[in-house]
Amino acid sequence: MDNNKYILPExxxxxxxxxxxISEEQLKIHHQKHHQAYVSGANTILEKIAMAxxxxxxxxxxxxxxxxxxxxxxxxxxxxxxANLKPLAGEINEPSxxxxxxxxxxxxxxxxxxxxxxxxxxxxxxSGWASLAICPITKQLMIMQVEKHNTNLYxxxxxxxxxxxxxxxxxxxYKNEKAKYIEAFWxxxxxxxxxxxxxxxxx
Length: 203
Fold this sequence. Notes:
The protein is mostly helical. It has a single domain, classed as minor pseudopilin epsh fold (3-Layer(bab) Sandwich). Helix 1 runs antiparallel to helix 2 (61-83). The model has no long low-confidence stretch (mean pLDDT 95). The protein is built from 7 helices and 3 strands, in the order ααααβββααα. A 3-stranded antiparallel sheet has the order 2-1-3, sandwiched between helices.
């Protein structure tokens, strides 16, 4: 937060650089419109809460808490998503080092991990995310299916990798063919960033 406000992060690449897997138009709308809406929504709700406290006005805390969770969750998940993508550099795009060992140790093979993660993303009910996370207790890698931005979360699990499967993430490029979008996603995963997240979580 900057001056007690959430801010839209800049992307670590240019809008055209994820093409052909995510087009420039799709990425611009997703980042500048959808992500910005969650940032603005969270800030507006926080301002509403602050004013109510100053004025001594009662507010519907159940509704406010739910709406705030949705918007903050949207902001955080999108920030993770942008950072775990990168332009395709032509190399075989697979994990290495500690991350590769953890995936093979947890899932048996990288192929098995991709299959389970893909199935998780494909079967999200409505809108949401698929995530790879690490349990802080067992240190085991687990796949998490998140509805919207804030349902079915594993509390305190460090998130390593996410894919946005809201329709707004892919509809311009892939229409209703979510499977093609998920298949394309594997070409632009930033495994270096995912590995750094694992190292931070493990330490």
